[in-house]
C-alpha cells in the first residue's frame, strides 16, 4: 500500500524525529511511504487540519504518484478526517488509527486481542456517533424520517454492548493476574519489568537475559503481550522478569486505558529496567515520554535502573555509572552483542539482595541528563 506521509510543524523541537517515527510506524503497519509532505502552522485548520492550499498539494501528490492512503502524524477530528477524504479522494488515517492498526496486527494473546478491540471500538464510537449527527439535526426529511435516528441508536447500542462485554472480560483477566501476583508475593519473588520507548531493544534484552525466544524485530511495537520468565541470579535467588509493550509519544489514551491490565505488570514491579536506545539522537525526549506514561499509569514511584542499550552503535564501552553515595545511575550495554550483560545481571542481583534486607531506598536513581555521553 503506497502512502503519503503528512506532518505539520507546530514549532516543537522534535519535529524531524517525529516524522522519522511516523515513517517507521507506517512501515510497521505494512504501508510503503512514497512521499512526505510537511508544512508549518501556528494551529490546525478547523476544516482540513493543513489548510486548503496544502490539501490541494497533497491531492496532486496522491494523483501523480497513484497513492492509496494518506497518513497524518497527528490526531484528526472526525470532521477533519471526513473532509480530507472527500478532498483527497483516498483513505486518510491519523496517528491514533495507525497505532491502533499496528496493535491489532500484533496482538496474539487472548488478552491482547481483547484490549486492542476495546481501544478500537472506543475510538470508532466517537467517529461513528459524530458521523451521524447530520441525521440527528435534520429530524427526518424525505428519505430520512426516522431510519437515520434509529440506525444511530442501534449503532450506539451495539457498540455500547460490545464495549461493556469487553470491559467485563478484561476485568476477569485483571483478577486472574491479581491472583498470580499474590502467589508471587507470597513466595517473596522479586519482580522486574522492562519498560522503554518502542524499539529501544527491550525484547532483545529480555531474550539475552532469559533465553526466552520472545519475538524481537527492528520495528515499532514488536511486543504487545507481556511475557514473564524466571531468572536465576546466583546468591540473589530467582527473580521474575517481564517484557512489556513499548511506549511512544502521544500514545492514544484509549490504548493506555485498554492496556492497563498488561501495564499493571509494570505498576506492581519491584524494579523497572528503563531501556534506552543509546544511539538515538532524541533519547532524552524518549526518556521523558516513557516517564510521562509511567506517571499516567501510576508507576512513577517504582525505582528505575536506566539501561543504555545499543552501545555497539556508539562509541561507549560496557560500564556501570555510579554517582555519589554509590548510587547506580546507568548500565551501558549491548543486548545484541552481549557486551555488558554481566554488569546488568550483577546490578539487578544487588538490588534484589538489598531489598531483602530492607535497604532499597537509595540504591538506584533516574538521571535524564546525558551531556557526558557522546555518540558517533
In brief, what are we looking at here?
46% of the residues lie in helices and 17% in strands.
Description:
- With 376 residues, the chain is of the alpha/beta class.
- It contains 12 helices and 11 strands.
- The protein has helices at residues 15-28, 52-65, 78-88, 95-106, 110-131, 133-138, 147-186, 202-210, 253-258, 260-267, 283-296, 341-356; strands at 2-9, 32-40, 69-72, 91-93, 190-196, 227-232, 238-243, 271-277, 304-309, 319-322, 328-332.
- The protein has a 7-stranded mixed beta sheet, with helices on both faces. It has a 4-stranded parallel beta sheet with strand order 2-1-3-4, with helices on both faces.
- Helix 11 (283-296) links the parallel strand 8 (271-277) and strand 9 (304-309).
- Helix 4 runs antiparallel to helix 5.
- It is globular, with a radius of gyration of 23 Å.
- The two termini are 35 Å apart.
- Residues 130-148 and 368-372 have low confidence and may be disordered.
Amino acid at each position: 500500500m503506497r502512502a503519503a506521509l503528512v506532518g505539520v510543524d507546530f514549532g516543537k523541537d522534535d519535529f524531524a524525529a517525529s516524522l522519522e517515527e511516523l515513517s517507521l510506524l507506517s512501515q510497521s503497519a505494512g504501508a510503503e511511504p512514497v512521499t512526505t509532505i510537511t508544512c508549518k502552522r501556528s494551529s490546525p485548520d478547523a476544516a482540513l487540519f493543513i489548510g486548503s492550499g496544502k490539501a490541494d498539494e497533497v491531492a496532486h501528490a496522491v494523483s501523480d504518484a497513484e497513492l492509496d492512503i494518506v497518513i497524518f502524524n497527528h490526531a484528526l477530528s472526525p470532521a477533519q478526517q471526513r473532509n480530507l477524504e472527500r478532498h483527497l479522494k483516498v483513505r486518510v488515517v491519523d496517528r491514533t488509527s495507525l497505532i491502533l492498526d499496528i496493535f491489532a496486527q500484533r496482538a496474539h494473546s487472548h488478552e491482547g486481542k481483547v484490549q486492542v478491540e476495546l481501544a478500537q471500538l472506543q475510538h470508532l464510537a466517537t467517529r461513528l456517533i459524530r458521523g451521524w449527527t447530520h441525521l440527528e439535526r435534520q429530524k427526518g426529511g424525505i428519505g430520512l424520517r426516522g431510519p437515520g435516528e434509529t440506525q444511530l441508536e442501534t449503532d450506539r447500542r451495539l457498540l455500547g454492548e460490545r464495549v461493556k462485554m469487553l470491559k467485563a472480560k478484561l476485568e476477569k483477566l485483571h483478577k486472574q493476574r491479581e491472583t498470580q501476583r499474590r502467589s508471587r508475593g507470597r513466595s517473596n519473588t522479586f519482580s522486574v519489568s522492562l519498560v522503554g520507548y518502542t524499539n529501544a531493544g527491550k525484547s532483545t534484552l529480555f531474550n539475552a537475559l532469559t533465553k526466552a525466544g520472545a519475538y524481537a524485530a527492528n520495528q515499532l511495537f514488536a511486543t504487545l503481550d507481556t511475557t514473564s520468565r524466571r531468572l536465576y541470579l546466583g546468591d540473589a535467588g530467582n527473580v521474575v522478569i517481564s517484557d512489556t509493550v513499548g511506549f511512544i509519544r502521544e500514545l492514544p489514551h484509549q490504548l493506555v486505558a485498554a492496556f492497563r491490565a498488561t501495564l499493571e505488570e509494570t505498576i506492581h514491579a519491584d524494579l523497572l529496567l528503563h531501556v534506552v536506545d543509546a544511539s538515538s539522537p532524541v533519547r532524552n525526549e524518549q526518556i521523558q515520554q516513557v516517564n510521562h506514561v509511567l506517571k499516567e499509569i501510576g508507576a512513577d514511584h517504582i525505582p528505575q535502573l536506566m539501561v543504555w542499550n545499543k552501545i555497539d552503535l556508539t562509541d561507549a564501552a560496557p560500564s556501570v555509572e555510579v554517582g555519589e553515595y554509590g548510587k547506580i545511575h546507568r548500565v551501558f550495554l549491548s543486548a545484541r552483542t552481549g557486551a555488558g550483560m554481566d554488569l546488568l545481571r550483577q546490578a539487578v542481583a544487588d538490588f534484589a539482595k538489598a531489598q531483602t534486607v530492607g535497604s532499597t531506598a537509595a540504591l538506584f536513581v533516574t538521571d535524564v541528563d546525558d551531556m557526558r555521553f557522546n555518540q558517533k
